[in-house]
Amino acid sequence: MTKMVKKGVLVAILVIFVFLISGCQRADVDEPREYNYRTGTQGLELRFPTNMPTEIYENDRDVRFMVEVRNRGAFPQSDEVDEFRGKLWVGGYDERILRVYPRLGSSITQGINLDGYSLEGKSVYNRDGGYDPLEFQIDVGELPDGMPYYRPRLLMTASYFYKTIANPMICVDPEPRSTRVREKVCDIGDYGAVGRGGGSGRGGSVGAGVGSQGAPITVTRIEEDVTGSDILFKIYIQNQGNGLVILESDIDQDPNQGYDWRDLNLVRIDDIRVGNIPMTECRPARGRDVQLIDGKGYIFCRLDRTAAGGKAYVTPLNIQLSYGYTTSIEKDIEVFEEISFR
Predict the structure, then answer these.
(1) pLDDT band, residue 174 (cuts 50/70/90)
(2) How far apart (Å, rounded) are the C-alpha atoms in residues 52 and 73?
């Protein structure tokens, strides 16, 4: 073989090698990545910026500050924006000394409407969730005679409608104790945030999806059993956010006036299905409320064994809950007496 031919063969091998390497690298780049946005235990989050003025003076005008509102949860998605509604309320100060009002929008006494489009939930396309900065203004009146300073605690409260959608993976086996010899893909049992797949489970692993679902009300555990005629489920839910569960109808009520204790901690059951099969019966029933006690509650459901089929398989247990929710932040400010020189 001549030197020219050897050189040509070597060049060809190098070209093929380069193409193979670049192809492998491209495959790595183009490989789709999983992203589960239904994680976490927060809904809306409020925050005062670090540069907020906290020392103001008697008769000051047009003192401006911001309140940042961010959606840390997964509701609403783009097709659910019209279902979202919420308001921001201000309290904690003497209205005869301070006047606090939004720079734009509605009156402070009726609450400031929150925009669902700006506060869309986390998604595959928006991993941080929506964000809406709201600007306020403070006008200071006169302090009572002989009072050198006034120290109110400014309280900001968001009250809003929210949903939890959980799809933990469960095992459906109508005959778990059968003596027939067969291959089974899964076993029924107790699905908790730890063990049997847990809340950190991926893909179709049994137990994946229990623990947090991108909302303050979470499905924390599921117990499953089978009787002669039914597959039974006990679903545990918990308020793992840092706020209060209220009625949806109380979103328009000023939280600074308080709520009736009988109207608190009620979570609506919108729907529960095994895959696409509706539960035969639930207690409380679908469309009714679960009462949380010490932030916790549970739902009993049964599915007729004949509806589940005769084989063992893994499928999501689709749980949809809705509720009103409030979360608050506070900031101490100081109003000093105006100093005059004569």
Answers:
(1) confident
(2) 26
